Amino acid sequence: MTAALDDRFGPFDGGVWLNCAHQGPLPHPARDAALDAVAAKVAPAAMTDEAFTDVPARLRAALARLIGARDDDVLLANSTSYTLNVVAQGLSWRAGDEVVCVDGDFPATVLPWRALEDKGVRVKLIGDGDGRIDAETVAAAIGPRTRVVCLSWVFSFFGHAVDIASIARACRERGVWCVLNASQAVGARPLSVASLDIDALACCGFKWLCGPYATGFGWLRPELRAQLDYPQPHWLRAQSARGLDRALDSTLPGETTASAFDVFCNANFFNFAPLAAAVQMLGDIGIERIAAHDQQLIDELIESLNGSEYKVLSPLSGDQRSTLVYLSHQDPDANERIAQGLKQRRVSIAQREGRLRVAPHLYNSSNDIARLTGALSELG
Prior knowledge:
By secondary structure, the protein is an alpha/beta fold. It has 12 helices and 13 strands. β3 (98-102), α4 and β4 (122-126) form a beta-alpha-beta unit. The radius of gyration is 22 Å and the shape is globular. The two termini are 25 Å apart.
């Protein structure tokens, strides 16, 4: 039996949350940080000037630690789309330039590049629409006008993980920027950007990082960052180096770190303080431990479905398996009824493109998997 890896979640009031790929629940340290932020706004005397720089600095450091990066290379965002747009809008483009994306990828990974089509940039979709992309396919798609390859590490609609190391290496060998949407992976899979040839990483904070909605971050390789013209002038960016007591100074600092691309008002106490607490908690537990725990639960799920009326559609094993497990009844038309039946039984999963998606995380246990599979058996 696999116990929950950490009990600082919930209470779930008798329900089972197996839908982290949609929303990760706030752990108690994050909840407490959010309540502290509310209390400080209710009684503003508790809000110090130093908090305007301490909160973003603490979050940036926690995120950098999580992905093996330098603090200076991490930007604070409000979504995955924010960082992708920093890159898409920040690079200079000429008519005829090309961006390679994957057919079937999550729309947030593709849409920032679609906005460039009015400038004559071509968006080239590759693959068979199922997220099963390898380095050879990517390399074959790169042409003389390809500037960027952008794809997800784990595909939201298929649960398939790609070998990002080999894909990024293929891009580097051909002089093409490699941009990664890691929202369905960071927090559930170990990552060190220092060991990869990716050039940018975009991630939200409300899924596997268990932070609030409307949070996220990005990582930018310095060589790519130097090519971006997407300034974000806001008063906190200027005052962070001088202090709030010199607010009349309206000159911008000459910084060259990724913080220059932070979302406006990066001292977002209600969102960024709890996200920092959640990320610090995950980092203290260890992503390797969390990944092993999550994969053990998936092993139990797959084993329990052997010989049942359900088929696992996502990879069963190996590096291509992620923390998103897609299922279907042998009669796909029954999936809608089954999803509703699970909801009535307070077992929360997701239904995507007519299939059932299960996404356990560190707060889940064998008992949660057993409750799911028992309900599936009843409904099948």
